[in-house]
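General statements about sequence and structure are easier to judge against a single worked case. No coordinates are needed to read the tokens, only the vocabulary itself. The sequence in question and its structure tokens are set out directly beneath this paragraph.
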Amino acid sequence: MVVENDRWLLTGGTVLVLVALLLSGIDPHDRATWVLEVAPAVIALPILWFTRKPFPLTPLLYGLVFLHALVLIYGGAYTYARVPLGFEIQAWFDLSRNPYDKIGHFFQGLVPALLAREILIRGRFARGTWMIGFLAICVAMTVSAVYELIEWGVAVVAGGGAVEFLGTQGDPWDAQSDMAFALLGALVAITAFGRWHDRQIGRLAGRGGRDRIAT
């Protein structure tokens, strides 16, 4: 069941992402990298619309999905190692590299963890706060690990052409730190957003939809 506010959120978020996608694609730093970086956002949009009636998400999750999409699109336009905001953060904290990619990996843990949590609770696939949180974090880390494998696969196939997509900036521990930030995002999703998320899931169930709330 989709109510008017959620429909506006879904429509507004979609328009915002499409505009950002169009602008970022006009003259990206590296076209191939741009395609790879924005692909998850392009894939997610139709899924959100196809599932809006049988399984509408909470406003919190919709908002974070769109924010994650914007993070990906912004990074894709410049490549993660060259994002201006990243250079600003690098200067503020006197870092040795542009850290913008870590923001992307933080969201890579945050959003999948919340999505997994929502599915687990509403579908009653698991019970108990600790078990649901643990499983949600496991899902997020699986997503992170699969993404690192995809990066490795692209590097094997493209060779030197994958440098911009990998964005390691000479860091031999880049993959490990990427997963650490994904873990941090997943932990934030469970600890900082848990109660807010629960309230929104409860309101969804109160609308008379098909989903159920685990107790």
